[in-house]
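Notes from the 1:1 (GR / supervisor)

We went over the backlog. Supervisor wanted to see one worked example end to end before approving the batch request, so GR pasted a single chain during the call. The sequence is below; no edits were made to it. Supervisor asked that the structure be written out right there so they could see what the output format looks like.
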Amino acid sequence: MKIQILGTGCPKCNQLYANACDAVKELNSDAEVVKVQDINEITGFGVMVTPALAIDGDVKKVGKVPSVDEIKSMLA
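Structure output shown during the call:
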C-alpha cells in the first residue's frame, strides 16, 4: 500500500504527513508514506487544494488534515 501526501510543504501538509506516519506505525502496517510536492503531479490527481491524502493513487481527503484515527479507518 502506498499513501501519498499531496502538498507543497506547508505546515498542514507536514502535519498530514506526520499523522499518516503515526497511523501506519500504530497499525503495524508496511504501507509506504511518500510526499508529493511537485505541483504538476498534485494537479495530475485532480487536486486543487492542499493538503490532500491519496491511498494507492485514489484521493481520499482534500483540504483538511484528518486525525491519526481517521487515517487508520481509511487504511483498515
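Supervisor's comment: The chain has a mean pLDDT of 97.
Batch request approved.
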